[in-house]
């Protein structure tokens, strides 16, 4: 998957996000993201791991331009995203999509699947009505749902089906970059592998670039080419999946890895003295 | 495990919920038991009947649930027993931990007071004695600086500490059975490890029987003596953790294990998947509930429900599985 492109699709430099917390008299600053630098090349998948509160999702929100950074620079295809306005901003919104953990909170309960998936097409004035309908059926097929699902409402879907709809909607505008924030964590065990396979297949098919956030290291390893380990807002280690997971250097990475419970290697790990 | 009398033994347990759309059978003729000092893990996906199984024992099912079969607690039948007697038994002998510690704790009371209340109500202790006892208990669940922590509210504690407080409350009256319903699902991985270690330590120190519910195979592997795999309201495979996870016999167990992405095997281009989705209780397929998703399904699977049995004997205390067409050999 090595790319000849010399310029990264996403380039993050000295990114900082501060939150003010507490009452006015005793206000303190919480640095959620602390001087983060990384790049993602086209067609690559970067996995971000770290415990809750490490700043993973904050970084994702800034990249999706859902949150303004305190300082630092985020470039998408060479252009600073903070300065985007008007048509350029709209283009950015088309090229970058997100999929979140809970599909039911990202889908409007009053909209059918057809309406949810075609909404981005309407917003961006793409195609005629007939073309949009045809496109929705294509997208449903792409994510492995039968055409009849178009008429359903979110409450008539299972978690896995709803997540497929969210993915279909994210693909509707043929984006280049998809931010996946814990996309399988709320799904049933037997469904997770289906969605992981789907994400990987789509990535290859459309040369997508992913930022994948997850807390299950096995899952992140499956999807990602590179891994970035975050601890309290900082990146403590970065490298290829094999480097990070087979030969971790930082103590925090080792700690994360030692907390992974593998069905084979950790069989009986806590039975200890009783056995 | 057969050397000790079980703390709980459940046989032919059925649980049916009466809903506006008619009765829904959540649990179908399940059998399991757990001995003192043993950890029994029930593993399954949402809706498989894990929680309903254990809360039939803890008495936390809603009124719409009709429970039938037999539940023996320390040898005594508790299904149909007198309400007041049950209340006392459940308060003193059964401790319960849930997934989200914040919903088990009252935000308006100091955590010390919530623990102390158990002692004033059930042991008739004075308030100050009960408080001291609460501090001791916080110490025994390894909360650093327990005196200061007892004086704090739940929002001042981290997620892991809150779960320790909930564990402290669950073991306050020295229960013989600890029910842990997804106790680490809401926690970070390293905190999960610490909490599982604590549960296992308390189990060893106090010789409690532990029933732990999880959907995480790694959690089950790390802590279980014995495992039951549930699917659509039935136990489909049960045995020691080693038997079930190293030599799984049921196609569902095998598929779950092989569909899990693991570190070190990351070069795989595709994961093995189970097609379709778990059935809802309203539409459980005829015959083996897993047959529409099963790669080994044969004609009989569509009509006849397989019983849980061992290839050699019908003794379910051994490795047993419910399948008409299991894979030969390993």
Provide a quick synopsis of the model.
The complex is a heterodimer of chains A (275) and B (330). With 275 residues, chain A is an alpha/beta fold. Chain A is built from ten helices and ten strands.
Note down, in words, how this protein is organized:
The complex is a heterodimer of chains A (275) and B (330). By secondary structure, chain A is α/β, with parallel strands linked by helices. Chain A has a domain at 10-107 and 175-259: 3-Layer(aba) Sandwich (Rossmann fold). Chain A is 36% helix and 24% strand. Chain A is built from ten helices and ten strands. Chain A has a six-stranded mixed sheet, sandwiched between helices. Chain A has a four-stranded antiparallel sheet with strand order 2-1-4-5, with helices on one face. In chain A, strand 9 and strand 10 form a beta hairpin. The radius of gyration of chain A is 20 Å and the shape is globular. The N and C termini of chain A lie far apart (47 Å). By secondary structure, chain B is of the alpha/beta class. Chain B has a domain at 8-108 and 153-278: P-loop containing nucleotide triphosphate hydrolases (Rossmann fold, 3-Layer(aba) Sandwich), CATH 3.40.50.300. Chain B has eleven helices and eleven strands. In chain B, helix 8 (189-206) links the parallel strand 7 (177-181) and strand 8. The longest helix of chain B is centred in the middle third of the chain and has 18 residues, at 189-206. Chain B is globular and about 70 Å long. The model of chain B has no long low-confidence stretch (mean pLDDT 91). Chains A and B meet through helix 7, helix 8, helix 9 and helix 10 of A and helix 8, helix 9, helix 10 and helix 11 of B.
């Amino acid at each position: 998957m090595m790319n000849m492109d010399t310029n990264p699709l996403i380039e993050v430099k000295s990114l900082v996000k501060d939150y003010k917390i507490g009452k006015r008299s005793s206000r303190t600053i919480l640095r959620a993201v602390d001087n983060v630098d990384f790049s993602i090349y086209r067609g690559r998948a970067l996995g971000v791991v770290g415990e809750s509160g490490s700043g993973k999702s904050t970084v994702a929100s800034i990249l999706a331009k859902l949150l303004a950074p305190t300082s630092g620079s985020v470039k998408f295809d060479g252009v600073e995203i903070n300065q985007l306005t008007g048509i350029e901003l709209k283009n950015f919104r088309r090229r970058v999509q997100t999929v979140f953990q809970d599909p039911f909170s990202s889908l409007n309960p009053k909209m059918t699947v057809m309406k949810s998936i075609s909404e981005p097409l309407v917003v961006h004035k793409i195609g005629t009505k007939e073309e949009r309908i045809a496109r929705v059926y294509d997208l449903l097929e792409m994510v492995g749902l039968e055409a009849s699902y178009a008429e359903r409402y979110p409450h008539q879907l299972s978690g896995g089906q709803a997540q497929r709809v969210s993915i279909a909607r994210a693909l509707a505008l043929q984006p280049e970059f998809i931010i996946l924030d814990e996309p399988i964590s709320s799904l049933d065990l037997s469904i997770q592998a289906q969605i992981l396979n789907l994400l990987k297949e789509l990535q290859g098919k459309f040369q997508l670039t992913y930022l994948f956030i997850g807390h299950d290291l096995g899952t992140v390893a499956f999807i990602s080419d590179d891994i970035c380990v975050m601890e309290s807002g900082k990146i403590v280690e970065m490298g290829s999946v094999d480097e990070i997971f087979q030969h971790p250097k930082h103590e925090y990475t080792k700690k994360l890895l030692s907390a992974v419970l593998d069905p084979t290697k950790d069989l009986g790990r806590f039975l200890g003295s009783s056995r | 495990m057969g050397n000790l009398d079980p703390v709980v033994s459940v046989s032919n347990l059925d649980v049916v919920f009466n809903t506006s759309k008619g009765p829904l059978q959540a649990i179908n003729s399940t059998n399991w038991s757990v001995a003192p000092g043993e950890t029994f893990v029930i593993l399954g996906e949402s809706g498989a009947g894990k929680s309903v199984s254990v809360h039939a024992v803890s008495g936390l099912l809603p009124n719409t649930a009709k429970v039938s079969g037999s539940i023996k607690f320390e040898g005594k039948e508790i299904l149909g027993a007198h309400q007041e007697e049950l209340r006392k038994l459940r308060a003193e002998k059964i401790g319960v931990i849930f997934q989200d510690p914040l919903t088990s704790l009252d935000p308006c009371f100091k955590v010390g007071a919530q623990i102390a209340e158990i002692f004033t109500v059930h042991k008739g202790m004075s308030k100050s004695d009960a408080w001291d006892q609460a501090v001791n208990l916080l110490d025994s669940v390894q909360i650093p600086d327990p005196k200061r922590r007892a004086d704090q509210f739940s929002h001042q504690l981290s997620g892991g500490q809150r779960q320790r407080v909930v564990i402290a409350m669950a073991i306050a009256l020295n229960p013989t059975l600890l029910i842990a319903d997804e106790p680490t699902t809401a926690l970070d991985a390293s905190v999960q490890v610490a909490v599982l270690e604590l549960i296992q330590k308390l189990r060893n120190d106090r010789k409690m029987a532990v029933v732990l519910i999880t959907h995480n195979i790694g959690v089950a592997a790390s802590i279980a003596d014995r495992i039951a795999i549930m699917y659509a309201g039935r136990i489909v495979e049960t045995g020691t953790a080693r038997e079930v996870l190293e030599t799984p016999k049921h196609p569902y167990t095998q598929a779950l294990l092989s569909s899990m992405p693991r570190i070190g095997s990351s070069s795989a281009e595709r994961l093995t998947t189970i097609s379709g989705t778990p059935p809802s209780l309203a539409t459980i397929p005829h015959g083996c509930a897993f047959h529409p998703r099963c790669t080994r399904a044969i004609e009989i699977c569509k009509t006849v429900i397989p019983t849980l049995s061992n290839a050699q004997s019908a003794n379910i205390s051994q490795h047993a599985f419910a399948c008409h067409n299991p894979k030969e050999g390993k």
